Amino acid sequence: MAAEKSWVRLVTAQTPTNIAVIKYWGKRDETLILPINDSLSVTLDPNHLCTTTTVAVSPAFHQDRMWLNGKEISLAGDRFQNCLREIRKRANDVEEEEKGIKIAKKDWENLHVHIASYNNFPTAAGLASSAAGLACLVFSLAKLMNLKEDQAQLSAIARQGSGSACRSLHGGFVKWIMGNNDDGSDSFAVQVTDEKHWDDLVILIAVVSSRQKETSSTSGMRESVETSLLLKHRAQEIVPKRMIQMEEAIKNKDFPSFARLACADSNQFHATCLDTTPPIFYMNDTSHKIISIVEKWNRAETTPQVAYTFDAGPNAVLIARDRKTASLLLRRMLFHFPPGADVDLNSYVLGDKSILQDAGIKDMEDVKSLPSPPEIKDVNSNQKYAGDVSYFICTRPGQGPIVLSDESQALLNPETGLPK
Amino acid sequence: MAAEKSWVRLVTAQTPTNIAVIKYWGKRDETLILPINDSLSVTLDPNHLCTTTTVAVSPAFHQDRMWLNGKEISLAGDRFQNCLREIRKRANDVEEEEKGIKIAKKDWENLHVHIASYNNFPTAAGLASSAAGLACLVFSLAKLMNLKEDQAQLSAIARQGSGSACRSLHGGFVKWIMGNNDDGSDSFAVQVTDEKHWDDLVILIAVVSSRQKETSSTSGMRESVETSLLLKHRAQEIVPKRMIQMEEAIKNKDFPSFARLACADSNQFHATCLDTTPPIFYMNDTSHKIISIVEKWNRAETTPQVAYTFDAGPNAVLIARDRKTASLLLRRMLFHFPPGADVDLNSYVLGDKSILQDAGIKDMEDVKSLPSPPEIKDVNSNQKYAGDVSYFICTRPGQGPIVLSDESQALLNPETGLPK
To answer: Rounded to 5 degrees, what angle do the CA atoms A90, A108, A54 make?
Structure first.
């Protein structure tokens, strides 16, 4: 170990979040986080939704510490400890001559780390912040400790922090292979196609207002595995076939098949939640309305325009076949779900705001004068629900984790290793 | 046939509605209405929910005619025609000496009938009015035409009008055996136990306000059969086991098992609706809240107090283990769902209103001062939703169809055969 205690080694990385289109619901091993079926996700553009994490090591640190969004949090939980242990085990020699840093493989067990993490989106909004967060923790620590493992091997470590985190180790479309081994060694994520393969897709997320306290996905999936007779059938008989069909649809950029599978699989996941004792409701009336609007539009067209998928909460993730469709989708969404009083357009449509221009919407007057969508025939389906959506985020499929080499983007001070 | 054209023969009958605790969802034959699984229901007390039907025959009638709730409706639909045809086929000689009526078996094919039907509850409220209605049509026509068939055989005729109608031919707990024959001859309803066997049970129906137009159960179950992969598994693998367990629970008056099975089966039926393409949502946020309240209370007690079940709509049917429990349930319901403005208590709790006394509630002041239920610990679960329930009906398990011999209760004029 370097004799001087003055140095701090920093690595900063950025990792995307992801949304499953074939859902992960249910573990066969709670400790190792091994799933009961394969799953498949699209990685979201980190420009709009990502976690940035800086990890630091210094002989001056006396304990492992972590800060999330500026606030110190405990690292005592199993999820963090499992990841830290697995990464330390695989650490290698590190040498940075200009800083006088020299760490031998065996030194790592005595060195402590500081971790600072920041989400560029609301943590509690049900947008898979734990997936991006754990993936970023693993990816940045792996760089810090000079691991030789590839992304798939790192994904198997991230999996032990948060199941869906393993899918955030890659960009584009990503498959989490459930594996068969009891030790989890063959349960990891691989890329199906990169984000450039199908770059027509545009993703609109509706963050739905909710007063209900939701069941955590950890306890929810445990209860489903224990009590839902339908979940077992889904995992064993239905998902294996759907995985093959979904990979095929993605490789062929076959949007109608992609949309049908994504919608059916989201609905089936929520069906197994409802089949749980006691039943779990993640979607609410607003979620149902969004589905009805999309279904009605898709049926009015000759071929599906938009796919929807919902995770363990009421938020809708809407995937439009192209940018033109996305702008028509946004017009429909703003027609039915205008912002509530005192909410301005600029804070109502986030992410890639240029979609507003494509949709021909400059201000609230344009929102108010939006015509009823042509597929709506009866007055009953014409209703507006101001305030039922908190905000929209427009994004697209995006890249996997990257190291940010510009030290100005670090969340920890390079001298002290404490939050800036 | 009697030479004079002056006579009118009348029969008036009353038939209950029923609510399934093991659900019927999906037909294997659309024309004969043959189901994909057995189902089991409780018949509701006709004093609170029933259809009354008067049928009349006279040589003076020139065509078959029908009035529902005072308004003439068409009899052209397959459902009516199937029942009429099947009953006429089985008609027998009738003789009423004092009225000078003599109808030979062969005369029936040339005689026309008048039918007047009346529901003592709102037709469109999603309270199985078609089940009671078709059952009453079949039962009263069978009496008019002197059929020799027993209730099970009549139920097979009613089944061809509306599947669940077959279960309204008996009181108490009733099983609809799906049968195996292609001609439907072995698909009929039998009584499991009569209504006196388990007379502790009290049933509280919450009629839930809804702006959504619902998918009809006929088209809904067709779409589920065509698209839900989970429904097939439910019908083939899960329901057969549950039927045996449910019959056992009813025979033993084992409320905990009864409640667990009823709740799980209601939730699973709605899960298969959600697994349908496009998905069908019958329950709404209010339905979900009612489930949460009951589930929380059941968990707080050592054993289930109340079972819930929902048909193809948002209304909750709550089955309390006894009258004391029902009064505690009503207090909880009125705490969370007080009547909306301008609704008085007398039009908010219908059916057996004496439950209000048991619950210690005389007026709106008592409703306002109801304490928060003891099982509620966090403020979030303490919310009130005035107006989300339209009204409650308190009832109990009840008897099967009866003939009303008092002619003053007839809905048709005994001289003219036209509505009174």
So the answer is: 85
The topology under which CATH files domain B9-194+404-409 is Ribosomal Protein S5; domain 2 (3.30.230)
List, in sequence order, the alpha helices (H) in A103-236.
129-144, 151-159, 217-227, 229-233
Say whether pLDDT at B214 is over 90.
no
Question: Does residue B2 surpass a pLDDT of 50?
Answer: no
Contacts of B227 in chain A (CB under 8 A): 264
Q: Which chain B residues are Cβ-neighbours of A291 within 8 angstroms?
A: 278-279, 281
Q: Where are the domains of chain A?
A: 9-196+403-409, 202-395
Bridge partners of B54, per DSSP, are B12, B116
pLDDT tens readout for residues B154-197: 999 999 999 999 999 999 999 999 999 999 999 999 999 999 99
CB contact under 8 A, B267 and A279: yes
pLDDT of residue B55: 98
What six digits make up the tokens of A386?
A: 């101001």
Tens digit of pLDDT for each residue in A140-150?
999 999 999 99
Contact B230 A271 (CB under 8 A): yes
DSSP secondary structure, B220-239, as one string: HHHHHHHH-HHHHHIIIIIH
> What residues of chain A score a pLDDT lower than 70?
1-5, 123-125, 211-213
User: DSSP letter at B46?
Assistant: T
DSSP string, A191-206: EEE-TTTTTT-EEEEE
Chain CA centroid to CA B358, Å: 26
Q: How many CB atoms lie within 10 A of CB B248?
A: 13
Report the CATH architecture of A9-196+403-409: 2-Layer Sandwich (3.30)
Q: Is A51 exposed, middle or buried (0-12, 13-18, 19+ CB in 10 A)?
A: buried
**CB within 8 Å: A278 and B295:** yes
- B281 touches A: beta carbon within 8 Å: yes
Average pLDDT of the residues in B8-21: 97
Q: Please state whether beta strands A349-351 and A389-395 pair in parallel, antiparallel, or not at all (unpaired).
A: parallel
Beta bridge partners of A9: A57
Instruction: Return the H-helix or E-strand segment holding B101.
Output: strand B101-103
What one-letter code names the amino acid at A343? V
Nearest to B118 by CA among B69, B58, B182: B69
SS3 state of residue A220: helix
Distance, CA of A53 to CA of A117 (rounded, Å): 4
Q: Which of B237, B271, B285 sits opposite A275 (nearest CB)?
A: B271
Angstrom distance (rounded) from CA A107 to CA A104: 5
How large is the ipTM?
Answer: 0.93
The two beta strands, B349-351 and B389-395, are parallel
CB proximity B241 to A under 8 Å: no
> Is residue B147 a contact partner of residue B164, using CB atoms and an 8 Å limit?
no
Helix axes B151-159, B129-144, angle to 10 degrees: 130
Q: Which fold has domain A202-395?
A: Alpha-Beta Plaits (3.30.70)
Q: What's the Cα-to-Cα distance from B27 to each of B110, B160, B224, rounded to whole Å?
A: 34, 12, 10
Residues from chain B contacting residue A276 (CB–CB below 8 Å): 267
DSSP class of residue A314 equals S
A350 touches chain B (CB under 8 A): no
Q: How far is CA A78 from CA A73, A162, A169, B331, in A?
A: 14, 10, 20, 43
**Chain A: residue whose CA lies nearest to B286:** A285
What gap in Å lies between CA A151 and CA A75, rounded to an integer? 24
